[in-house]
Each structure stands twice: as structure tokens, then as C-alpha cells.
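Private note to self, pasted from the team thread so I don't lose it. C-alpha cells:
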């Protein structure tokens, strides 16, 4: 069963039929799903594809109906169209599309272009035969345009590569015909003309080759006002000299390769090897760059051995022991060339290599780049059949150079035995005598992360694990560079420890480069150029020079670029830079600058959380989170005033995103001696973290102390703690106090010029009223505030308003309430407001259980439960468990409901005491007693009272799963 996009969209089914949905809407849906196979495509994206800018009124229902028709039209393949949350996905079940197969054929062909051009032609033919028309058919010029254009470009390049393969295979006449077709199809493209010229010249048709050039020049001048490129002009000149004809290759004896032996098997680099071979097939000068220890030499060596195995000469030059003045001598010695004394040794060397055919590998070039660049430039110019591969931590910076970056190994997700980094670690670790168990495998995966996926670091760590054990190596890796030593005795000395590898790179830096590199250690994760300029520039590293210096560090592979505009240090390099920063005596100074810059960014960005651009502000602060933690940790040790400022400022971001890791900054402040009213916000953050952990009475005391510190309930600094105090009063069941606190909180926010938080406080009045069973009053509050939330266009305000509108309507208009819950979730997702998203999902599931949609509720609640568990908010989790008690009772899971009720109600200090929930649980327990009898119900309730929190969650998951099996879908 295979889906098609290389032409009209459709599917080849196992029954031998080609199915193409009959209606344009069905075909559009299928095309939209195939743009992201296996990924969830939202209902709105599908609607845009099917109806363009005129979607139906009820989008969800219209897409649901259209997807149903599409499933039927696809026949057996319809089962692969899966319904997900707010969208649909096409699960290909491991079956690639025709586009994926085409790309796979092309990759395989390019890998054989040099070693077996005849096989390459066959593979290109197979790939190109998969095309049945324009990519994505009728949708190529609308929503599928970007993907269609990319595929068509790949098709053109594959056709060009096929001509190259025909030339290399000696099928000259076919190359001439195919090249001529390409020139007609793409008259402004250069490569088809070059291929045609080479093919005609190889066929002995020099006049026709020269005419092809003249025709190309005329077309370029007429349509673009340009002349042909330098490469085209040089080829034209060589043809004029009658030396451009490419000979037909025939088998012959070639000299043996002079290569070092391969020290061990190459693990986890199959795709990188194919990719490097493909780049070398297309380009005569390739520089393989990457950080120290990433495996550049090992990959180049593997490629060299494979070329040699295909009877192609390979010359290997190890530049590690070579000083700059002896570069020419080293290359000459490795290639067997005699360079006579004279004024132009570079010219003599390149002239001697002019007829060489094969691969010249120049390994470890970073310390001789200046003299090597001049030599390589001449060799590439004068030896047209010699490919040059350079390995270096920095490029040569030549015009014809192609830079190919080798990344670290892919890092494992969980204990993944098949991950290449994990496989390398296990292969290099002395045998356990048995396969590693799950715990050991998880520890290996953790070590691979901490070693950045660098093969050398992994090999050194694995060797250490043989002597010390996995756990000991993990514990000692805080000093990554010091512990990672003792590699292969046959390895180069600088590859025997990671410190030696990094020092080799560091010692090549200039003074300003070295200073900037060590200062980058203060950034705990990714960073931006403007952060570097703000934190690291001073009289030693001038502000105007930072951008250039950072670019140089990237080029030297000491800093990694994270597209499009971020940077990072590998952890091994950060450990080295941190030590250098400490040795320089600059550590505290630059940690302080980083902390203050981070605090300023938080202060500047936080007000945008209350605008329509909240999503951008959230993205900015989420990306800044590692810096925020590092800044707070520094401040807590060295500048408590700054730590308190950070703690208060973080509340708005952390609370609504339920980032309890950030809210917990307030907890140490509870024990600090705080006298400044501006510190009240930090204690308010502490109170929020405390109630989230389920300690409501303790949280109330902290909030009261915070208000007192602020100067009383009417003082402006009391705004934040007043809001937290209102939350706690509501959780404790004190509705009137909560309403009064929320209104005072709103007034303080208005007085501070903060209308966004004020609006949320006014809406929170409705929340307190609803939980206190005063829904009519709450409805008036929501009716007045909802339009203001709409006008604000702030996603969190809209999520909160729609959530409360749903709560108001829940007992009178279930359909309207369900719509409001969905809308609340959509707005909450937009701003990553996980608090309101999970509250809405929980309440929506509870509504389904009350309206008879038991199976739907049983399907929804496990996901909601796990969301609260992941967020770590135990008070909110207890609130959700109360709702599940009601659901289990309604599903006739009476014993399970009684056990869960006992577990939840026994924790009065954790669970919110909402009157409305108390009433519903009371009704549920009465139902349980009626069905089970008083004594069995009491016994189950008492059993629940003894459960630990972990056991309570396990019981709940099992009860929901058992009930879902028994309850039939509606």
C-alpha cells in the first residue's frame, strides 16, 4: 500500500487498484495529510486546504464528514487515516510515499556515482520512473506549492545527476541526448549546458559543444543580461584547446592506496558516510568540519578505504605532526612526488599532481590553514581529476571549497538500545558478560547526553566504565575533561584525553577569541548574539568585535550554530571554558553580568505577556529559562536583592505556564530576612508554589506575611500576594473572603497600570462564586468581562474568560459549555497557558460524565490526569481526582469510587474545598452506599484512606482503564 504525490494524489492499495478520491475536497484533504505524513494536521489546516478562504460555518463537523468520505474512498487504506485531538493524521505504518522512495533512490544513486556509475544510472532511472505528473497534481500551485516546488527541483537535479552518471559509465550518446533534453526544458539553468558540452566533447563533437556554449550565452544575455559563469567559460576554453573530452573509463590497474589502518568498526555513521560520498561526487574540494572528537578523521578514513576498495587511488596526509613550513613536503611525501628545489615549490607540486586521478585526504588541517590554502588552491586548479578532502575544525576559505559539517551522533530519547550513540558506548565498553539491563541502558543513554554525542568522548567514557562502572562514571562526569582519559594506546597523544583534544583547539585561538570563548561559559544553554554582546563585551573584547569573534569561534568548531540565529557550547567545551574562566579570575564578574542582563530581559518581556503578542513573549521566556535558572542560582548565592527581584518578576510567566520549577524560587526567600516592600512579590510567588504542592494552610500564612511586608492590603506592592491570597481563600472554601480579595487585587492592579492582570482578577471573582455555588452572580461577572477579554486579544485572558463562561453554562446548556471549553483550550494552547488548558480539559471531561457521555469521559480523564502529574500541581491534581470519583460512581465502578474518595478526602490539607465539588462527591458516595451497602462502602473508603499518593494515582489509572472496558461507546 503506497501513497502517491508525484502526480495526482492517490494510493496504490494492496488489492491492486489505484484509488484517487473523486471529489476535489477529498483529494485536497489527502494532499494536506501527505504534506505531513504521520503528523497531526489540525482541523483548520485541513479546512483551508479543502475550502480555501471560504470555509464552512461549522468547520469541525464539515471536516469530520469530509474525512469520513475520504476514508471510504481510500478503501483498505482508509484505516490509516487516524483521528487525533483537534485534527487527523495519516499513519503510513512504515510504508514510504512514492516521493520518499524517489529520494531514497537518488541518495543511493549518488553514493554509487563514483564507484559504480552504471548502477547509479539504473537507480536514477528507477527513481525518475516513479513520477506520473507534476508533484501534488492540481494542488501544486496552491497550499502544496512549497513541497511541490522542492520535489520538482529534486527531480531536475536527479535528471542532471543521471547525465553525469551516463558520462561516467561511458554511455556518451545517451548522455548527449539526455543533456540536450535538459537544456530545452531548463534553458536558463547552467548545469544542463555544462553536461551537454562535456557529453558532446566526449563524443568528439567539439563544434557542437562550442555551439551549445554560444547558444547558452545568447539566452542568458537576452533574458537576464548576464554572461556565463566562470566555470562555463573555463570549460569552453578547455574545449577550444581540445583537451576537455572526458575519456570513457575502462577497467585498469591502479596503484594501491596508502592509508592508515582502520582502528575499529565505524558505528552510527552510515548516513554521514553516504552524505559525504555524495558531496565528494559533486565537488572536487570538500572540507569536513566539526568540533574536536566528533569523528572527522574516522569518517574520512572509512571513506578512503571504500574508495580504495573500488580500485580508486587514495593518498592520505596526516598533518598533525607537520609544522606550517613543511606542508608541501608532507603532501609530496604522501603522494610520492619529487619536488625539486626552485622558486615555486607549490607550482612544482601541483604540476606533478596534474594527471593524478583519485582522492587526496588532508587530515587535521586546522593548525596549517594559511600555507595549506595556497597549496590546495593550486592543486584543485591544475589537477582536474583529483578530488581533495580536508578534515579540519575550520574551513580553508577558498572560492571552490564546499564545507560539509559533521554533527555529533544523534542523542537517544530514553533508553534506546538502537540509538547510534548508545550502540557505540556499548561496543567500546568492556564486556559485561551479558546484555545490559534497562537501568544500565538508561544510564548509558544519560551518559551519551552528557558527552554531547561526541564519538571520542563516548569511547573514552565507555573505556572508563569498564574499570569504574557506569554509575561511578556518571557521578564523576561533573569534571568531564579530567575524567575522560585513557583511550587507545595506539591513538595520537592528543586523542588520548578529551582535555588534550580541546586544548589543541584552544591553543590555536587569538587573545580576543580565547577571552570570548571562556566568557561564553556563563550561558547555560543556547544563546543569541545580542546576549553575548551585552554580557561579554568590555575593554578587552570590544562590543563591535563580538560578532566577528563569535563567527570565528563557530568556524573553528568551538561554538555550535543553532539555526537560524542561536548558538551553543557543547557540554565538554563548556566544562573547559568554565575552568578557563575560573582560572582567569573573571568567573564572578561575568556570572554577575549574565544574571543582571537576564533579569533585565525578564523585566522587559513580562509586560508583553498581557498583550495580543503573548505567544511571542512566552516563546522568548521559555527559550530564556536556562538563563533564568542560572541567574537566580547566582543571585541566591551572591545578591539576594537581585534574587528576590527575579522571583517576583517570574510569577506571571511561571504561574500560568505552571512552571513550578520557577515558582519554587520563592521558597528559600521565606527564610530570608526581607524588609523591602518590593520583596512582597517574591513571597507571593513562594505562597503560590506552596499551595501548588498541596500545603494550603502554610501557603495562606506566607501570603498573609507577604501582604504585611508590602505595607498592608491597600499598598501597591501587595498586588501579587493579594491575588495568591484570594486563590488560597477560594481553595479553603471561604468564598466571601476570596471574592473580596480578588476585587482588591483587581483594584491594585488597575492602580499599578496593569489592566491585563486586573481583568484576570475580575474574572476570578466569577470562579470563586461558581465554586461557592453562586452561579447566577458569576454569570453577571462573566457577561460583563468576556467582551473586554475579546477586545484585549490576549490569549490567556480569552482562555480564562471562555473557561468561566463554560462553567457558568455547564448545568444549563451543555453544548454551549462544551464549545466554550474547546475555545478556552485553543487560546490556552496559543500561549502555552497550561494551567487554563488543563483546567478546561478536566472540566470538559467532568461535563461529559455528568451529561451521560461516560465513554468519552473515561477516554479523556487519563490524559488530563497525566497532564497534572507532569505539571506537579498536587492541589489541582486532587481537584481532578474528586471529579473522577463522581465519574466512577456514575459508571457503576462503586468500589473503585469509594477507595478513591477515601484517598482524596483523607488529604484535607491538599484538596481544594469547593462547595460544588463537595456536593457532587457527597451525592456520588450516597450512590455508592446504596449499591454496595454501608459496611462494604465504608470498608472501601477506609482502604483508600491508607493509600499513599503514588498508590492513589496507580489505583485511579487502573480504575479508569477497567471502567473504559466495561462502558460501551455512545
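Design output:
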Amino acid at each position: 500500500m503506497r501513497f502517491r504525490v508525484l502526480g495526482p494524489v492517490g494510493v496504490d492499495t494492496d488489492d491492486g487498484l489505484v484509488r484517487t478520491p473523486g471529489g476535489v475536497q477529498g483529494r485536497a484533504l489527502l494532499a494536506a495529510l501527505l504534506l505531513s505524513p504521520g503528523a497531526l494536521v489540525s482541523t483548520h489546516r485541513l479546512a483551508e486546504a479543502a475550502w480555501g478562504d471560504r470555509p464552512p460555518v461549522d468547520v469541525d463537523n464539515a471536516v469530520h464528514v469530509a474525512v469520513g468520505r475520504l476514508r471510504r474512498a481510500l478503501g483498505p487504506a482508509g484505516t490509516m487515516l487516524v483521528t487525533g485531538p483537534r485534527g487527523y493524521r495519516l499513519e503510513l505504518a512504515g510504508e514510504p510515499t512514492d516521493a520518499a522512495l524517489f529520494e531514497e533512490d537518488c541518495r543511493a544513486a549518488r553514493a554509487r556515482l563514483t564507484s559504480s556509475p552504471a548502477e547509479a544510472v539504473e537507480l536514477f532511472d528507477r527513481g525518475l520512473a516513479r513520477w506520473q505528473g507534476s508533484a501534488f497534481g492540481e494542488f501544486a500551485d496552491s497550499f502544496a506549492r512549497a513541497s511541490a516546488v522542492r520535489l520538482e527541483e529534486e527531480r531536475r537535479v536527479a535528471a542532471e545527476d543521471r547525465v553525469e552518471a551516463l558520462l561516467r559509465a561511458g554511455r556518451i550518446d545517451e548522455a548527449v541526448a539526455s543533456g540536450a533534453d535538459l537544456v530545452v526544458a531548463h534553458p536558463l539553468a547552467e548545469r544542463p549546458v555544462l553536461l551537454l558540452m562535456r557529453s558532446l566533447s566526449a563524443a568528439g563533437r567539439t563544434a557542437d559543444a562550442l555551439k551549445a556554449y554560444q547558444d547558452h550565452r545568447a539566452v542568458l544575455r537576452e533574458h537576464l543580461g548576464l554572461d556565463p559563469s566562470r566555470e562555463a567559460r573555463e570549460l569552453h576554453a578547455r574545449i577550444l584547446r581540445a583537451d576537455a573530452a572526458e575519456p570513457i573509463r575502462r577497467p585498469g590497474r591502479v596503484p594501491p592506496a596508502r592509508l592508515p589502518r582502520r582502528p575499529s568498526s565505524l558505528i552510527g555513521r552510515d548516513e554521514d558516510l553516504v552524505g559525504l560520498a555524495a558531496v565528494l561526487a559533486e565537488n572536487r574540494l570538500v572540507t569536513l568540519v566539526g568540533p574536536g572528537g566528533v569523528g572527522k578523521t574516522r569518517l574520512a578514513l572509512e571513506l578512503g578505504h571504500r574508495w580504495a576498495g573500488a580500485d580508486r587511488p587514495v593518498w592520505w596526509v596526516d598533518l598533525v605532526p607537520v609544522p606550517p613550513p613543511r606542508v608541501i613536503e608532507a603532501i609530496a611525501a604522501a603522494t610520492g612526488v619529487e619536488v625539486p628545489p626552485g622558486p615555486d615549490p607549490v607550482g612544482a607540486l601541483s604540476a606533478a599532481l596534474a594527471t593524478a586521478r583519485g582522492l587526496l585526504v588532508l587530515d587535521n588541517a586546522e593548525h596549517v590553514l594559511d600555507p595549506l590554502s595556497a597549496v590546495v588552491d593550486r592543486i584543485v586548479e591544475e589537477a582536474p581529476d583529483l578530488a581533495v578532502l580536508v578534515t579540519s575544525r575550520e574551513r580553508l576559505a577558498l572560492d571552490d571549497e564546499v564545507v560539509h559539517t559533521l554533527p555529533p551522533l544523534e542523542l537517544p530519547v530514553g533508553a534506546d538500545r538502537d540509538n547510534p550513540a548508545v550502540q557505540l558506548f556499548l561496543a567500546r565498553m568492556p564486556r559485561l558478560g551479558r546484555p545490559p539491563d534497562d537501568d544500565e541502558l538508561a544510564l548509558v543513554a544519560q551518559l551519551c547526553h552528557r558527552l554531547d554525542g561526541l564519538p571520542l568522548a563516548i569511547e573514552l567514557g565507555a573505556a572508563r566504565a569498564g574499570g569504574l562502572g557506569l554509575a561511578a562514571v556518571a557521578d564523576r562526569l561533573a569534571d568531564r575533561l579530567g575524567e575522560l582519559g585513557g583511550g587507545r594506546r595506539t591513538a595520537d597523544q592528543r586523542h588520548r584525553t578529551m582535555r588534550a583534544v580541546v586544548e589543541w583547539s584552544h591553543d590555536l585561538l587569538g587573545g580576543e577569541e580565547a577571552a570570548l570563548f571562556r566568557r561564553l561559559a556563563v550561558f547555560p544553554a543556547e544563546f543569541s548574539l545580542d546576549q553575548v554582546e551585552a554580557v561579554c563585551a568590555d575593554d578587552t573584547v570590544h562590543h563591535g568585535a563580538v560578532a566577528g569573534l563569535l563567527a570565528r569561534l563557530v568556524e573553528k568548531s568551538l561554538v555550535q550554530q543553532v539555526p537560524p540565529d542561536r548558538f551553543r557550547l557543547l557540554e565538554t567545551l563548556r566544562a573547559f571554558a568554565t575552568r578557563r574562566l575560573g582560572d582567569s579570575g573573571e568567573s564572578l564578574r561575568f556570572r554577575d553580568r549574565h544574571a543582571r542582563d537576564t533579569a533585565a530581559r525578564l523585566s522587559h518581556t513580562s509586560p508583553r505577556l498581557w498583550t495580543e503578542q503573548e505567544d511571542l513573549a512566552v516563546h522568548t521566556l521559555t527559550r530564556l529559562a536556562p538563563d533564568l535558572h542560572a541567574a537566580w542560582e547566582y543571585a541566591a548565592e551572591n545578591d539576594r536583592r537581585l534574587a528576590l527581584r527575579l522571583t517576583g518578576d517570574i510569577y506571571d510567566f511561571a504561574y500560568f505556564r505552571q512552571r513550578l520549577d520557577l515558582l519554587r524560587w520563592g521558597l528559600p526567600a521565606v527564610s530570608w530576612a526581607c524588609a523591602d516592600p518590593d520583596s512582597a512579590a517574591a513571597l507571593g510567588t513562594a505562597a503560590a508554589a506552596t499551595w501548588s504542592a498541596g500545603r494550603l494552610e502554610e501557603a495562606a500564612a506566607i501570603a498573609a506575611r507577604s501582604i504585611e511586608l508590602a505595607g498592608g492590603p491597600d499598598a501597591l506592592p501587595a498586588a501579587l500576594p493579594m491575588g495568591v491570597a484570594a486563590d488560597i481563600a477560594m481553595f479553603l472554601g471561604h468564598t466571601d473572603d476570596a471574592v473580596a480579595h480578588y476585587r482588591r487585587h483587581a483594584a491594585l492592579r488597575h492602580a499599578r497600570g496593569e489592566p491585563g492582570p486586573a481583568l484576570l482578577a475580575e474574572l476570578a471573582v466569577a470562579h470563586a462564586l461558581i465554586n461557592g455555588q453562586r452561579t447566577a452572580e458569576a454569570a453577571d461577572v462573566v457577561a460583563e468581562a468576556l467582551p473586554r477579554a475579546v477586545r484585549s486579544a490576549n490569549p490567556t485572558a480569552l482562555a480564562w474568560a471562555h473557561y468561566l463562561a463554560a462553567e457558568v453554562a455547564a448545568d444549563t446548556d451543555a453544548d454551549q459549555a462544551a464549545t466554550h471549553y474547546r475555545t478556552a483550550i485553543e487560546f490556552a494552547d496559543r500561549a502555552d497557558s497550561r494551567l487554563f488548558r488543563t483546567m478546561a480539559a478536566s472540566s470538559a471531561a467532568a461535563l461529559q460524565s455528568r451529561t451521560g457521555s461516560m465513554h468519552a469521559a473515561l477516554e479523556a480523564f487519563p490524559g488530563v490526569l497525566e497532564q497534572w502529574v507532569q505539571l506537579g500541581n498536587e492541589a489541582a491534581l486532587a481537584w481532578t481526582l474528586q471529579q473522577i470519583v463522581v465519574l466512577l460512581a456514575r459508571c457503576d465502578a462503586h468500589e473503585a469510587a469509594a477507595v478513591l474518595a477515601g484517598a482524596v478526602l483523607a488529604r484535607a490539607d491538599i484538596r481544594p474545598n469547593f462547595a460544588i465539588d463537595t456536593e457532587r462527591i457527597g451525592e456520588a458516595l450516597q450512590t455508592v452506599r446504596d449499591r454496595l451497602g454501608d459496611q462494604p462502602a465504608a470498608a472501601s473508603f477506609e482502604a483508600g484512606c491508607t493509600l499513599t499518593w503514588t498508590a492513589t494515582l496507580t489505583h485511579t489509572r487502573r480504575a479508569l482503564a477497567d471502567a473504559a472496558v466495561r462502558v460501551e461507546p455512545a
